[in-house]
Each structure stands twice: as C-alpha cells, then as structure tokens.
Amino acid sequence: MSLWDYKILDLIVKEGNLRKAAESMHLTPAAVSHSLAKLEKEFGLPLFVRGRRSMELTQYGKMLLPHIRTILDADMRLHSELQRIKGDMNGLVRIGVINSVCCAWLPAILQRLHESLPDVSINIYQGGYDELENGLLNGSLELAFVSLPTRKNLAAIPLLHDRLLCITPSSFIPVNVSYITLEEIKHFELIIPGPGSDFDAIAFMEANGLDTKSVHSIQEDSSIIALVESGLGVSIMPELVLEKNSRGINVYPIESAPYRLIGIATLTNTHPSSPVSAIVKLIMDYVREEYPTEMPYFRK
C-alpha cells in the first residue's frame, strides 16, 4: 500500500468516476484502474461499485475512507513541518528544458530565479521529451518541461496550449489564405523535427493521415526553417519555436487547430523541496504574465 494509491482512491471519490480522476492527475484511466485494483487486492475487499458512468464506494470503502484521509492529512502535515524546518532556500535544482522553452522562456525565467532565489544553484539540461522524463525518473533532474500527458505518468502542472503551425516557402499562399488544410500539406515534401525534438511529429502525421515515408527528418529548428525558406518543402512546428524564428517563411494555422500542452513535471512519489516548489511557482507566474489569456486558437 502506498500514499499514491490512497491519493488516487480519494480523488476517485471526489470526482465520482475513474476517467475524471485520471484527467485530474494527468494519468491514463488504465493507470488509475491498475492502482485501484492493486489497493483492493492488498485490502482483500472490494472498495467501489462500478457503474456505467460513475463509481460509488462499497460499505467497506465507506468504512475505510475516513482512515485513509486521516493518513493523507497526516502526510501533508508532516511535509509541511519538514518544509518549515528545512525551509531555507538553498541547494541545487536541475531543470530539464525542451528547445523551444530554452529559446523563448528560459532567459527571462533564469533572470527571475537569480533575483528571487540567489542562494539556489540552477543547472539546465536541454533535451527531448523522452530524455527529460527519464531524467526525472532516474533522479538526475528535479524539474522538467514536458508535453502532456506524459509518457511516464509523472506529476505535471499544465502551463500553456501551444498551437502546431505549418511553415511554408514565402511564395506559397493557401486557397483559404488564412489557414492551410491537411490536403494542401499532402502535396508538399515534409521536413519534420527528428527524434528527441520538441514534439512527436511522426505521431501527429500518422494521426492526421499524412504520409510518413516521404519526409526529411532534421534535428535543428533553424535548419528546418532554412530548408523551408529555400523552397524544399513545408514543416509542422510548435508556435513557441516560431516566436523568434519566422523570417523568410510563411506561417499558417492548420485546419482543426492542433496543439500540444506544455507542462512542468516532477516525480509523483516525492515531495518537492522548498526551492523546487518556489521555482514551480515562479515559472507558473511567468507564463501567466506572458499569456494572460489562452493563446487564440484558430477554428476552421
């Protein structure tokens, strides 16, 4: 039995069904179901009556829930006391960043960190999603920017919806002028970010019926933009990548308005230190100030 399983059970009770509980924790329904099944096996008792759209506690579940919540409250008080005792803001925090965040956000965030937390040492590691998620799991990172939902079921806080846009040579104008269709994209050679880049381009292409065989896979964003500018094809890139890199090309929203959800993640089974908690809050405040309303989504 673990506190994590208790937290999942408590959230299922609060949300009323397994799917909503999974969405709240940015986990898959299968992961939440597995945690609940493990808990019921360890207790040797059925805890929920599963309906088509909702879940209700069994009599055993109702008897055990107050004790489980007492344990969760005690754990919260324990960590609060530990933070009070160890509350000095010092130490080392290792942060993993994807390329677009490194270019668009990191300079301003680091400046704020140095001003607000002068005694905290910050190490930055740039990598792709898989590298950063693995870094959290193996303990080489305390924080990482990720795309939600994560592949490793990490605890993550959503930060920003980032549109996926199509970049074309400057000579191309789509039929609808203000946006490009998937059918129009199919007529071009595709130049896509390679493995380990900011988003899984192959998965996006397969999900939208684009040919994944006749594509050029390039690692560097600047190289992709240079090839598109030269008229050698088109590409699909996150908007954050293009904020400061759109000269010499045309940038169009894509029909159906696809996007990725950027978040900041930590390990699910650890309680963040005071410096880590302070950095997460600073990052959230920065993004909220930069994007006071949701980025405008294109709708066809």
TrEMBL record:
<dbReference type="Pfam" id="PF03466">
    <property type="entry name" value="LysR_substrate"/>
</dbReference>
<protein>
    <recommendedName>
        <fullName>HTH lysR-type domain-containing protein</fullName>
    </recommendedName>
</protein>
<dbReference type="InterPro" id="IPR005119">
    <property type="entry name" value="LysR_subst-bd"/>
</dbReference>
<dbReference type="GO" id="GO:0003700">
    <property type="term" value="F:DNA-binding transcription factor activity"/>
</dbReference>
<dbReference type="InterPro" id="IPR050950">
    <property type="entry name" value="HTH-type_LysR_regulators"/>
</dbReference>
<dbReference type="InterPro" id="IPR036390">
    <property type="entry name" value="WH_DNA-bd_sf"/>
</dbReference>
<keyword id="KW-0805">Transcription regulation</keyword>
<dbReference type="GO" id="GO:0005829">
    <property type="term" value="C:cytosol"/>
</dbReference>
<keyword id="KW-0804">Transcription</keyword>
<keyword id="KW-0238">DNA-binding</keyword>
<feature type="domain" description="HTH lysR-type">
    <location>
        <begin position="1"/>
        <end position="58"/>
    </location>
</feature>
<dbReference type="GO" id="GO:0003677">
    <property type="term" value="F:DNA binding"/>
</dbReference>
<comment type="similarity">
    <text>Belongs to the LysR transcriptional regulatory family.</text>
</comment>
<dbReference type="Pfam" id="PF00126">
    <property type="entry name" value="HTH_1"/>
</dbReference>
<dbReference type="InterPro" id="IPR000847">
    <property type="entry name" value="LysR_HTH_N"/>
</dbReference>
<dbReference type="InterPro" id="IPR036388">
    <property type="entry name" value="WH-like_DNA-bd_sf"/>
</dbReference>
